[in-house]
Amino acid sequence: MLQEFKKFISKGNVMEMAVGLILALYFGAIVKSLVDHIIMPPIGLLLGNVDFADWKIVLKAATMAGGEEVPEVAMSIGLFLNTIITFLIVALAVFWVVKGYNKMKEKLEKKEEAAAPPPAPSKEENLLTEIRDLLKK
Question: 0.70 cut: is pTM over it?
Fold first, then answer.
C-alpha cells in the first residue's frame, strides 16, 4: 500500500494539482484583498460613506446577561456582497486562463496536424488507383 501511495504521489499530475491549489488559495486571498481594500471603498464613498464590511441587518442586538455579553445576531449583507464580487473576479480570471489555455492547445494541435505526413493509402485505394490507370490506357 505504501508503494502504491508513493507511485500515486510521484505522478506529475498530482504535483501539478497541488501547485495549482496552492496558487489558487493565494490568488483568492489577493482578489479578496483587492475587493475589500481597493474596489469597495470608492463604491462606499460614492454611496454616501457606506462601509460595506459594517453593512448588516441586526436581528437581535447584543445584550448583557448575567455579567456576560451576548453577541448580536445579524445578517452581514456587506460581507456577503464582498464575497460575491470576489467570486465574480476569480471566475473571470479563471475564464481568461482557460480561454488562453484552449487557444494555445488549439494552435499546438494545428501545428501537429500540419507537421504530420498524410497517411499512406490503403490496399484498396492502391488497387483502385491501379484499375483507374489501366482503364485510362
Answer: no
Instruction: Say how far apart CA 61 and CA 74 lie, in whole Å.
Output: 8
Burial class for 53, CB neighbours closer than 10 Å (0-12, 13-18, 19+): middle
The CATH homologous superfamily of the domain defined by 2-115: Large-conductance mechanosensitive channel, MscL; domain 1 (1.10.1200.120)
Integer Cα distance of 49 and 24 in angstroms: 32
Q: 70 - beta bridge partners?
A: 63
Residues pairing with 63 in the sheet: 70
Cβ pair 85, 39 in contact under 8 A: yes
Does residue 23 sit in helix, strand or coil?
helix
Instruction: For residue range 28-54, list pLDDT tens digits in order.
Output: 888 888 888 888 888 888 888 877 778
35/31 Cα distance (integer angstroms): 6
Domain boundaries, the chain: 2-115
All three cell numbers of 61, joined, read 442586538
Strand 57-60, strand 73-75: pairing: antiparallel
